[in-house]
Design the sequence.
């Protein structure tokens, strides 16, 4: 492979397994090699740090705890997303937030969303069985799906149903009886202190098992009979062939290419059945460890060939842009406001629209979101004061002697913002725009800066830039 | 009247945080109210703007009282839904999606916009004035323009040089038109991009033609309603406007906050209607004002906590002014965990607006049939 192919492939890996990287980092990673980079993403050594949360909270103590609104929690998470050295860890945190979608809209206790997200950060690349138990015992999840109302004498099926439908198997792989028996097995998995809480008085919840609420009776679940409790149910779920397929299809949709929406999975086959089989087999053979399946995914040909096959999620748009421009690399008073930007594009962190998570793919696109996506990115990449944009300007200046043709300006900018693959039509429009002002002098009078910033803004507005 | 022929328009004003219904529509003849509310958290009977011998409006709602006296304002009492969760977000979601029992994702206003403009022919059939789109206006495939501030609205607004920006928007238009021929996702993206651009153009264009002798305030709700008036009077085919004002979550120091908010809301709403009237653009409009819940009957010393049943207002020349429904029972033994028990399902209120005003079938929009307070004079009928 040529050097530019290496860079383009590395940019693809970093967009998907992380939130993109600037050219300096891409070059460094390309020198290190693709496989070594996959390994570093999947199993980062302790020497690579997360964002420095202590520093953030020293400057902005109000971000430590959420309030009734989601701003502090979203700002706290945004800082992690933008500044972590372990981007796949954050990407998997976002993945589980989407799959085990829990919303502060109902929980109304953002501290517990922060705690749940931190749990995903610590364990999201660990073992899926372990994660299922942790999420079943997450106070935010218990309250979100009413499991504190799941009593021996009056089972509440909400958690039991979503565990099967959305967190493990998918529609069509269980019966209504299984839902009921599953709910019975999770009776007594509740939160202390006891509900009801009073409005505006947010208790610090913790998981609590209450034996007197638990139904110790015999249950029949997916063909097995016994006095099951929640952990037994999870073990039976893991024996179902539908389970690994369901989770790896989520991984495929999140990391490889847009799939049909989750509710359609029982009737719409996967776009690439062989990929799903390969990943599912890896998942089962590893005992439901996430790292082997992620490694297999990123090393596969179907992944490498899937460039720009997904509409970028709003969080990818925002975080990818900030990592490129170098904005918010330090604690900054604008964090809470910028933390809401993805919400204006349709993805409010800590607040998925429902337990099904977000509608992805083309559903990210509607006229309000398009305006906000384009304006946010254009304003960032068009700001030549930002360190990342300044570095792009410097690279463009160094590329081609004392003057650039309009074509060279376009090609340089398309390369340095991605590299992005644009259609001939789009490139022709970009060149026509650049040609309107003629060749670009590289003489330090600021004209180059302005024209690069403007070109980057126009590239951010292209249809192609909406894909990642 | 010429404006009779214009299609009906709905303006939704959301008061976020939970407005204190009992201090807005004050039951001044009710001893239980004065037993529960002390000090600054009660409105003394002599200060109430009385509308009958039982209830009246808060003294800061003078401009609304004038509208009420003209017969253009309906007050619907006791609006809510069973088992109020008393959480802002969840309650607002219920109002937005008409799904009190499950977490829904489809907005009722968006469904109405879809039914008003099934082919999505006008990118500004629905317009939100605000930073983020309320869930009420979210539905895949339904395009809604969302404007934070009309004076700065548009694509690529960060590009400072206007000639450059104009050229860039032309490039944008060409690129998105060409995307349409290249596969289903691109086609959708291309069309949506063009809708966004033409929506922004249409809305931007409304600024040029707007002049008004009405002087609005400079507070946020005044600016938002002025933006609504600007777009509406330009006659660009917008059928539903949505805007909101936050700050009604008055757990503490309620009195100054509440009074400030209602001073601004009352004036802005009154200015808005004056503005529409001088533009001869009021006859085909109604405004619907709601909040996610009322507040606790008994105060907490400096404010009030989250409650349940509340009330809504509808305003406009085609609104049948007066009171609808029954003020909820305030006797301590009639309360549910200290809160008023609603007696009018909010979906019935929506149904009236949808059926009698927008001439839509309300059942699939609000997910069922509910008792409807008939506070709207349908367009086309004798006023």
Sequence:
């Amino acid at each position: 492979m040529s050097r530019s192919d290496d860079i383009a492939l590395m940019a693809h890996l970093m967009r998907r397994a992380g939130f993109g990287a600037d050219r300096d980092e891409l070059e460094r990673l390309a020198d290190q090699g693709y496989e070594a980079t996959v390994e570093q993403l999947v199993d980062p050594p302790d020497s690579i740090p997360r964002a420095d949360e202590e520093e953030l909270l020293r400057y902005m103590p109000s971000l430590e705890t959420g309030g009734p609104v989601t701003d502090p929690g979203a700002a706290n998470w945004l800082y992690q997303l933008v500044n972590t050295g372990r981007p796949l860890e954050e990407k998997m945190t976002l993945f589980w937030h989407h799959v085990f979608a829990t919303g502060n809209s109902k929980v109304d206790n953002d501290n517990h969303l922060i705690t749940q997200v931190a749990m995903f950060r610590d364990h999201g690349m660990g073992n899926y069985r372990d994660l299922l138990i942790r999420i079943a015992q997450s106070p935010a999840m218990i309250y979100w799906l009413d499991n504190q109302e799941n009593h021996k004498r009056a089972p509440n099926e909400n958690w039991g149903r979503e565990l099967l439908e959305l967190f493990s198997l998918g529609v069509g792989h269980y019966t209504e009886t299984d839902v009921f028996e599953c709910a019975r097995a999770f009776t007594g998995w509740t939160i202390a202190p006891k509900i009801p809480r009073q409005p505006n008085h947010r208790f610090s919840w913790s998981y609590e098992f209450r034996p007197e609420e638990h139904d110790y009776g015999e249950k029949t679940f997916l063909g097995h009979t016994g006095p099951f409790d929640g952990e037994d149910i999870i073990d039976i779920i893991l024996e179902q062939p539908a389970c690994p397929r369901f989770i790896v299809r989520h991984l495929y949709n999140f990391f490889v290419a847009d799939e049909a929406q989750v509710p359609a999975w029982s009737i719409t086959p996967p776009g690439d059945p062989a990929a799903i089989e390969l990943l599912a087999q890896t998942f089962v053979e590893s005992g439901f460890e996430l790292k082997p399946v992620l490694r297999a995914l990123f090393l596969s040909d179907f992944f490498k060939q899937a460039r720009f096959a997904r509409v970028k999620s709003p969080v990818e748009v925002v975080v990818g842009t900030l990592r490129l421009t170098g904005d918010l690399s330090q604690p900054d008073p604008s964090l809470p406001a910028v933390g809401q930007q993805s919400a204006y594009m349709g993805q409010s962190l800590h607040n998925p629209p429902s337990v099904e998570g977000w509608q992805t793919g083309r559903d990210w696109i509607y006229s309000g979101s398009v305006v906000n996506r384009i304006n946010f990115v254009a304003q960032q990449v068009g700001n030549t004061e930002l360190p990342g944009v300044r570095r792009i300007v410097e690279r463009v200046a160094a590329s081609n002697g004392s003057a650039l043709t309009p074509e060279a300006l376009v090609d340089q900018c398309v390369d340095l913002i991605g590299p992005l693959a644009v259609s001939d039509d789009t490139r022709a429009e970009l060149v026509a725009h650049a040609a309107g002002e003629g060749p670009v002098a590289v003489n330090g009078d600021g004209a180059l800066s302005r024209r690069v910033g403007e070109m980057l803004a126009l590239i951010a507005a292209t249809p192609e830039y909406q894909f990642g | 009247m010429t404006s009779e022929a214009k299609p009906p328009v709905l303006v939704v004003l959301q008061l976020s945080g939970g407005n204190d219904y009992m201090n807005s529509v004050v039951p001044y003849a009710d001893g239980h109210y004065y037993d529960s509310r002390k000090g600054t958290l009660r409105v003394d009977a002599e200060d109430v703007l009385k509308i009958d011998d039982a209830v009246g409006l808060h003294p800061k709602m003078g401009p609304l009282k004038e509208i009420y006296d003209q017969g253009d304002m309906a007050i619907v009492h006791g609006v809510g839904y069973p088992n109020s969760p008393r959480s802002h977000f969840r309650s607002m979601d219920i109002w937005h999606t008409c799904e009190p029992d499950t977490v829904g994702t489809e907005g009722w206003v968006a469904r109405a916009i879809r039914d008003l403009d099934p082919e999505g022919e006008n990118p500004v059939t629905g317009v939100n004035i605000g930073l983020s789109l309320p869930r009420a206006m979210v539905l895949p495939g339904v395009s809604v323009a969302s404007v934070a501030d009309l004076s700065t609205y548009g694509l690529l607004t960060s590009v400072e040089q206007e000639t450059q920006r104009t050229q860039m928007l032309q490039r944008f238009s060409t690129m998105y038109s060409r995307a349409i021929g290249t596969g289903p996702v691109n086609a959708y993206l291309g069309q949506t991009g063009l809708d966004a651009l033409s929506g922004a153009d249409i809305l931007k264009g409304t600024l040029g033609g707007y002049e008004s002798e009405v002087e609005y305030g400079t507070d946020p709700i005044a600016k938002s309603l002025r933006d609504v008036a600007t777009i509406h009077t330009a006659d660009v085919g917008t059928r539903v406007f949505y805007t909101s004002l936050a700050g009604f979550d008055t757990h503490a120091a309620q009195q100054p906050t509440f009074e400030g908010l209602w001073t601004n809301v009352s004036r802005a709403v009154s200015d808005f209607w004056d503005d529409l009237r001088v533009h001869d653009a009021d006859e085909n409009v109604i405004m619907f004002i709601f909040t996610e819940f009322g507040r606790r009957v008994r105060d907490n010393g400096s404010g009030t906590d989250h409650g349940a049943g509340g009330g809504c207002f509808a305003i406009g020349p085609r609104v049948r002014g007066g009171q609808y429904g029954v003020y909820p029972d305030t006797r301590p033994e009639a309360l549910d965990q200290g809160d008023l028990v609603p007696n009018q399902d909010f979906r019935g209120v929506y149904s009236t607006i949808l059926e009698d005003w927008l001439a839509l079938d309300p059942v699939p929009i609000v997910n069922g049939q509910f008792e409807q307070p008939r506070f709207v004079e349908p367009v086309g009928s004798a006023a």
User: Anything to note?
Assistant: The mean pLDDT of chain B is 91. Residues 184-209 of chain B form the longest helix (26 residues). The longest strand of chain B covers residues 9-16. The two ends of chain B are 11 Å apart (CA to CA).
